[in-house]
Amino acid sequence: MRDAFVRALTELAAEDSSVLLVNGDLGFGVLTDFIERFPANYVNAGVAEQNMTAVACGAALTGARSYTYSIGNFPTLRCLEQLRNDVCYHAADVTAVAVGGGFSYGQLGMSHFATEDLAILRALPGMTVVAPSDPWQAYALTRQLHARGGPAYLRLDKSGAGLPEGEVELGKVRQVRDGHDAVIFATGGILREAIAAADLLSKSGRQVRVIDVHTIKPLDTIAICHAAGECRHVVTLEEHNVIGGLGGAVAEVCLENGVALGHFRRIGLHDCYPDVVGDQDYLRARYGMDRHAVVAVLVEMLAS
Fold first, then answer.
1. SS (HEC) of the chain
2. What phi and psi, each to the nearest 5 degrees, are found at residue 160?
3. 298 and 197 in contact (C-beta within 8 Å)?
4. Cis peptide before 39, with omega less than 30 degrees from 0?
5. Of 87, 92, 134, 164, which one has the greatest count of Cβ atoms within 10 A?
6. CA distances (Å), origin 104, targets 10, 155, 240, 281
7. Is the dihedral of CA 221, 90, 81, 77 positive or negative?
8. How many CB atoms lie within 10 A of CB 249?
9. 188: left (phi over 0), alpha (psi -120 to 50) or beta
10. What is the pLDDT of residues 110-145, one digit of tens each?
11. For 27-78, how does the pLDDT look when each residue is reduced to its tens digit (9 = 90+)?
12. Which percentage of the chain shows pLDDT scores above 90?
């Protein structure tokens, strides 16, 4: 996803001279082409992410289309005050780009786990929040965020769902598996586990719909309520704390729109700081959010 984002941004810089990339002193291998081609459109702010965000915002308020770029929580939670008071309050054209959503940097421990970012960033007024599920989506949604403008958060995962390239539209969910027994709403690369769970359940005759929610805010309320109302048994899956993230967003819109549900379960990190390290797949299994955990929840749900 990182490479796809950089490819899209490099193309945008060639089309729009106002593009500005402000980097937190990392990623030089993947950014080399951009830096060499557009040196005037690049600033290395150093390991000073709050200043990075302030620089990007100041430039945006004078006409730049700014992008900040760093790992996991560093361009988001470390910079929350700058994002809130500077970027969002002034509706500045700044997109905060985080590489390493969820457990992507699993060997580095909880300081590098981005597991509260979706909840916190979606609470900021005016902030668009996007978590692509595949590299081709990261490319397309980067371009769409640029066309939309305004404050945005782009959460890039190290994994991907492995879906063939297709159409994706900012703010509109995608159905990737059909079914009527239950529905799984998933966001980011962990969508792969939702698809695998649905495929496993299909072998026993259970048809589970899978919805790719790549845009957390603005949320596709109509499509989500339609799918939840048709299936009635709802599971949300996210590589994130279950409090305030995708699960909370889906529950809110269903309740506010009077959708009658049979069952509702959120699968994600349960209000804790992970105390083990490992690769992304290991941590998903360890904290109960891989395909086998999803299958277990749905089997129990559909049996009751």
1. CHHHHHHHHHHHHHHCCCEEEEECCCCHHHHHHHHHHCHHHEEECCCCHHHHHHHHHHHHCCCCEEEEEEECCCCCCCCHHHHHHHHHCCCCCEEEEEECCECCCHHHCHHHCECCHHHHHHCCCCCEEECCCCHHHHHHHHHHHHHHCCCEEEEECCCCCCCCCCCCECCECEEEECCCCEEEEECCCCHHHHHHHHHHHHCCCCCEEEEECCEEECCCHHHHHHHHHHHCEEEEEEEEECCCCHHHHHHHHHHHCCCCCCEEEEEEECCCCCCCCCCHHHHHHHCCCCHHHHHHHHHHHHHC
2. -150, 160
3. yes
4. no
5. 87
6. 24, 11, 11, 9
7. positive
8. 24
9. left
10. 899 999 999 999 999 999 999 999 999 999 999 999
11. 788 999 999 999 999 999 999 999 999 999 999 999 999 999 999 899 999 9
12. 95
Dist. CA 128–CA 202, nearest whole Å: 35
- The backbone torsions φ and ψ at residue 300, rounded to the nearest 5 degrees and listed phi first, read -65, -45
Give the integer Cα–Cα distance in Å for 31 and 40. 14
In this prediction the pTM is 0.96
- Letter for the amino acid at 210? V
Q: In whole angstroms, what separates CA 112 from the centre of its chain?
A: 16
